[in-house]
Structure formats: structure tokens, C-alpha cells
Amino acid sequence: MSKDDVRIPLLDYSSEPKCCNSSWCTTSTFLWQFYHAFNFLLGGTTFIAGTYCLYFPSCESLAALLYTIGSIGFASVDFQELLTYNGFYLRTNIILSFIGSVFYIIGSVGFFPQLQVPEVGNWGFILGSLFIGCSQLWKTHRIGKGDGDSFSFKRLAYETEAFTAAGVELSAGLGAWCFFFGTSMYEEGPLEGPTSVVSQVLQGQEHAKGHKQKTQSSTRYQNLQQRLLPVEVERVNAV
Question: What is the DSSP letter of 15?
């Protein structure tokens, strides 16, 4: 395998081997860049809006719809990159992200309340976030490695292209891991009522706070007893 097969593409993909020669597979064209940026932005904004809608029970269907649109946007980005690049490690990395996006689509559809399959929604997002989170970490490692044999933080810190690319990949990875842990809380559920995950966490904090206050009160009472005891002894002796 040649060195070109494992070279890390950063911001300039023009010299990367391609699977087709159309404008859809040429990163230097406006069409490719617009389609790539539009779908990535579509995925990010609809995920934010969909998550906000989950705060309102009456908007569950809208949230699922926004998630579905966003997931298709992310999958479109991955599919576009699959059509563009031909390096083995690079394509494997992209395939992991694409699998995660497909799980997102499945999970988004599962969140529609009419289907009554919330487990599909939960596990679709958990598995999708796991695949994408790991894929983004691998992409960041590949960027930090560059053409060398080992990962270098210095490369990420001092090379502008590497720093920018790593920032993009890490940001996407951070979002994926937040969804991974957040959706895991959904799986533990329920999210509403006195037995919800959030309520249990808050109750645990209140219990710890109450225990601390009780301990402090007990300590103050003991200190007061110690101060009053000599006074009581003197009073008894005086009698």
C-alpha cells in the first residue's frame, strides 16, 4: 500500500484519489463544497432544534422529524465523501461515520410517538453516537499523525490546517459523545415524574445536602453541650 493511501486529507483534498470524475466528486468545485457544507449545517441545526422540541411533550413528532432530516443530512455528507475518496484507511474511517448516521436515521424514526417504539429511537442514537464518536476520534488521531509514524500534539498546535481540521472533527465528536451519554439517560428513564433520572440525581444531591446540614447541626449541638457542661458542674457544686 502506497503512502498516498494513508495520507491525511486536511483542507485541500484536490490531490486525493477519487472514485469518480464528476463535479460531485471534485472537492475544489463550488457544487461539492456547497453540498457538503449545506448538509453538515442542516444536520447540526436540526439536531439542536429537535432537542429543544423534546422539552415540550406536544412537539415529540416535530422533534423526531427534525432528527430524521438532520440524520439524512449527516448521512449525505458521509456518502458524498465515500464517492470522493479512495484511500483504504480514509474510506474505512468515513464508513464508520456513515454507519453511525444510518443508526441515527433509524433512531430518529423510532422517536415518532405514533410508532410506539422508543427503544428503537434510544438504541439507534446510542449506537449511532458510539460509531460517530469513535470515528471522529480516529479522524483526529489521523490528522495529528499526518505523514509521520506517531501522533503529535505539536502538529495540531502549530500547523494551521491540522489545527483547523482537528477542531472541526473534535467538535463533531464532542456532539456525538454528548448524545451518547444523554440518550443513555433516556434509556435508563423515565425522564419525567418523581422517578425520572434527573429527579433521582437531584434527590441524591438534596439527600447529600440534608445529610451535611444534619451533621453540621449535630456538631453545633455537641459543641454547645461542651461549653455548657462546665457551667452546670459549677452550679451543682455551688448548691
Answer: T
8 A C-beta contact, residue 83 and residue 35: no
* Residue 221 to residue 178: CA distance in whole angstroms: 46
Q: Cell 416535530 identifies what position?
A: 62
CA angle 161, 142, 89 (to 5 degrees): 125
Q: Residues of 77-111 as b/e, b for ≥16 C-beta within 10 angstroms?
A: bbbbbbbbbbbeebbebbebbbbbbbbbbbbbbbb
pLDDT (0 to 100) of residue 55: 86
Copy the grid coordinates of residue 39: 448538509
Please state, in angstroms and rounded to a whole number, the distance separating the CA atoms of residues 226 and 231.
10
Name residues of the chain where pLDDT drops below 70. Answer: 1-25, 148, 187-239
Identify the pLDDT of residue 5: 43
**Per-residue pLDDT, 102:** 97
Which phi and psi (to 5°) does residue 37 adopt? -70, -40
Query: How is residue 121 written as a grid cell?
Result: 429511537
- In eight-state DSSP terms, residue 117 is -
The residue extents of the domains of the chain are 3-188, 191-239
The one-letter amino acid at 184 = S
Count other Cβ atoms within 10 Å, centred on residue 51: 15
CA 127 from chain center: how many Å? Answer: 12
The residues, ordered by sequence, that sit 6+ positions from 146 with a Cβ below 8 Å of its Cβ are 8, 152, 155, 162
User: Per 3-state DSSP, what percentage of the chain is helix, strand, and coil (rounded to 5)?
Assistant: 80, 0, 20
